[in-house]
Design goal:
544 residues; mainly alpha; two-stranded antiparallel sheet; 16 helices; 76% helix; 5% strand
């Protein structure tokens, strides 16, 4: 082996470990670079996947919103389709009932009836949204309030409403308000929140419009919103509002209506109390004014009476003195045997003349006494009105010509002459006079009137305004209730309705007798009177 080869061998042995080390380092560096590149590629892929998923979700959400906004435009078409489907079900039901056995028909009929009921309900909900609610769902306030009164006392209605609101919010927090059939939890939550937001938006708008007289319409609106939102949620794997959450929102609505009603009743009570206080104060002021004026007038009349009595006494004395002087002069000219008879005759004539003069003063005294008595009656009447503000008369009246048979007004007046109030009611605002069936004097007319109104509340003609006093009942029912309360009064069971019945007879005659009709019309227009006046003028011209 040459020296060069040895040197090369040595160099190879020395460089081999170094080259191996460099090779290992280079290999590790390449692996690190490859791993870093792969990580960047994975990150980019994840970002791209996330963006695509986000875009997909956004697209689905936009599509859902668009579908929801166009649902109302498609409602009429769905209504027609639903009606056609109902007819198909009816035809199928008829066919099944004709060909299948009785047992199968019963089972299938039940199924079809359930489907029909559900479809009819959806049709009704769509019709309500399209055509409006009108007045068909208006419920009389007292029936709703009676139902609510069984559940809670009026005094804690506000607390009940507050608790109902808290309970509804808690149901949302506990995911007990809406649900969905998506297997993916995230997508299920999104769909459930979508229908829940839609329903709550409608519910809050409905609740904000609550009044004392529209709860029936609002309940129907809330139920329709529930059905329609759930119908729209079918496209999102049956995303829907749960029935318990609908019940919670309905409870809110009912308690809100009750609170509104209680507030209204409190205002009405305060108003009635203030009116009663004003009436009592007015009666007291009127009594004090009349008392003062009557006393002053009585003093004036008493003074006038004293002057009349003094003038009467003075005139009588003066007249008698004149007559006595005249008698003494006349007796001087009369013979002794005629004097006694003449004097007796003269004194008789004198007494007659004095009586005539005295009678004039007596009339003035009687007039003064009558005026004093009238003032006393006025003062007693004012005193009675001030002391007995609640004392009055409950009247039962009817007006067949104006309102028809079987309609009675139950009212009260505190006037001493109750017929004056009934005459006022029979003014130009009604075509015929009222007939009186009973006048019931009572020390507490408002209380008796209120009890009778409560007794016949179902017969109220105007069930939306409790202050109206007309009732559709029989007079025998009213009489029975009044007598059960311990009142014994005279009753007129049959309304005379004189002018109304005479008008009916007259209308029949006018209809059947054309000549009589023409004559009557001319009389009403005053044509006969005008013709007579013209004829009289012509006759006068002829005489001239």
């Amino acid at each position: 082996m040459s020296g060069l080869e040895i040197i090369l061998m040595v160099l190879l042995l020395v460089c081999a470990p170094v080259a191996a080390v460099f090779a290992v380092l280079l290999s590790r560096a390449k692996e690190d670079v490859a791993q870093s590149s792969q990580a960047q590629i994975d990150l980019v892929e994840q970002i791209r996947s996330t963006v695509e998923r986000e875009n997909q979700l956004k697209s689905k959400l936009d599509k859902a919103i668009s579908s929801y906004n166009t649902l109302r435009d498609q409602a009429k078409q769905k209504l027609t389709q639903a009606s056609q489907l109902i007819e198909q079900w009816k035809a199928r039901f008829n066919k099944i009932s004709h060909w299948e056995s009785v047992e199968n028909n019963v089972e299938k009929a039940k199924e079809i009836e359930m489907n029909l009921a559900g479809l009819n309900r959806k049709v009704e909900a769509l019709r309500n949204v399209i055509e409006g609610y009108g007045s068909q769902y208006i419920v009389p306030p007292q029936s709703i309030l009676d139902e609510l009164a069984k559940e809670a006392a009026h005094t804690d209605a506000g607390q009940k409403l507050k608790a109902a609101r808290i309970y509804s919010r808690q149901m949302v927090r506990d995911d007990g308000a809406a649900t969905c059939d998506y297997g993916d939890e995230e997508r299920s939550e999104m769909a459930a929140n979508f229908v829940l937001d839609a329903f709550n938006g409608k519910a809050e708008a409905i609740l904000s419009d609550v009044k004392t007289d529209n709860i029936g319409t609002l309940i129907q609106k809330l139920q329709d919103a529930y059905l329609l939102v759930n119908e729209q949620g079918v496209a999102f794997r049956n995303a829907r509002i749960l029935p318990n959450y609908l019940k919670a929102r309905l409870d809110e609505l009912k308690w809100a209506a009750l609170v509104q009603k209680i507030k209204q009743e409190e205002r009405e009570e305060q108003k009635q109390l203030k009116e009663q206080m004003r009436e009592e104060a007015k009666a007291q002021r009127e009594f004090e004014r009349i008392e003062k004026e009557s006393k002053n007038k009585e003093e004036e009349i008493a003074h006038e009476r004293q002057l009349i009595q003094a003038a009467q006494a003075k005139a009588e004395l003066e007249q008698r003195a004149v007559y006595e002087l005249k008698l003494s002069e006349e007796l001087k000219r009369v013979s002794e045997e005629k004097r006694v008879a003449y004097e007796a005759r003269f004194r008789e004539e004198m007494e007659q003349k004095v009586s005539v003069r005295t009678a004039e003063y007596s009339e003035q005294l009687a007039d003064a006494d009558a005026r004093i008595k009238e003032l006393e009656e006025i003062r007693e009447k004012a005193k009675s009105n001030a002391q007995l503000v609640k004392n009055g008369t409950v009247y039962i009246i009817s007006n067949v010509g104006s309102f028809g048979e079987g309609i009675y007004k139950i009212g009260q007046t505190r006037r001493t002459k109750p017929l004056d109030r009934i005459d006022e009611l029979s003014d130009a605002s009604v075509p015929f006079d009222f007939d009186v069936h009973a006048l019931i004097p009572t020390p507490d007319a408002p209380s008796l009137e209120r009890k009778l109104h409560e007794q016949f509340v179902l017969g109220q003609v105007n069930k939306m305004n409790w202050r109206k006093e007309y009732f559709r009942v029989t007079i025998s029912d009213i009489k029975k209730v009044v007598e059960e309360m311990g009142y014994t009064v005279d009753w007129t069971m049959m309304a005379a309705a004189t002018q109304f019945r005479e008008t009916q007879v007259l209308e029949l005659s006018l209809k059947n007798d054309s000549d009589f009709c023409d004559s009557w019309v001319r009389d009403q227009r005053g044509e006969k009177l005008e013709q007579r006046a013209v004829k009289a003028l012509h006759d006068q011209d002829g005489l001239d």
